[in-house]
Amino acid sequence: MFTLFDVFHILFAYLLLSLQITIIERQVFDFLGYMWAPIFVNFFHILFIIFGFYGAYHFRIKYIITYLIWSFLWIGWNAFLICFYLNVGTLDKDSDLLNLGTGSVSWFEVNGYGCKPTYPTNFTSEDPYRPIRPERVDDCLLTYDLVEVIHSGVQCALALFGILGAILISYIFLDEDDRCDILIRMP
Predict the structure, then answer these.
(1) Of 52, 46, 58, 41, whose CA–CA distance to 21 is shortest?
(2) Which residues contact 46 (CB under 8 A, 6 or more apart)?
(3) How far is residue 163 CA from its own chain's centroid?
(4) Cα–Cα distance, 157 to 58 (Å, whole number)
(5) Which residues, listed in sequence order, are joined to residue 137 by a DSSP beta bridge?
(6) Distance CA 184, CA 163 (A)
(7) Cα→Cα distances 89→93, 143, 146, 180, Å
(8) pLDDT tens for residues 12-41?
């Protein structure tokens, strides 16, 4: 029937699929908000998830190890985002750090469930290319910073499961690797 290896292999593939779905959702909302730094990092994460799929499917340990190393960097990035949106230390969620100077903000700031933004009526911008931000946003079910923190927290949890799966699959692949047996048996 199924061996333990088959079960881990299938679970790892489903985990990577769920990671792919959640990161594509995050990528879409970052594109809607013109958040350029997260868009670039999300793109690389999608590439490394594909490496993980390829490595698991074709029994390539180096691809899985590459995915494993990236997962640690991904957790670091999401921990930074959590700190950024919670204004930890000198980080400020209203700065232009994530949008790379375009003045854009999270799409969820004005488009979250129940949000009603109030824009200034007589506002003239010094920079006509920067989007106008609302004076205040009322009646949101969850504020945008909380939504972004939840997104990052979910990504950290999924990445931890991905790390665990990659370690288990790598251990199984290395345990079943018999390339050195040929060298030992040769006369």
Answers:
(1) 46
(2) 20, 23, 24, 27
(3) 14
(4) 26
(5) 117
(6) 33
(7) 11, 20, 17, 52
(8) 777 777 878 888 999 998 888 888 899 999
**Closest to 173 (Cα-Cα) out of 73, 75, 67:** 67
- Is the pTM of the predicted complex or chain greater than 0.85? no
Both tokens of 99, joined, read: 């949008």
pLDDT digits (tens, 9 = 90+) for 157-181: 999 988 998 888 888 777 665 555 5
CA atoms within 13 A on the CB side of 35: 24
Write the DSSP string, 135-155: SEEES-SS-HHHHHHHHHHHH
Question: Are the CB atoms for 51 and 61 separated by under 8 Å?
Answer: no
How confident is the model over 121-145, as a mean pLDDT? 78
How far, in Å, are 15, 116, 125 from residue 174 at the CA level?
21, 55, 60
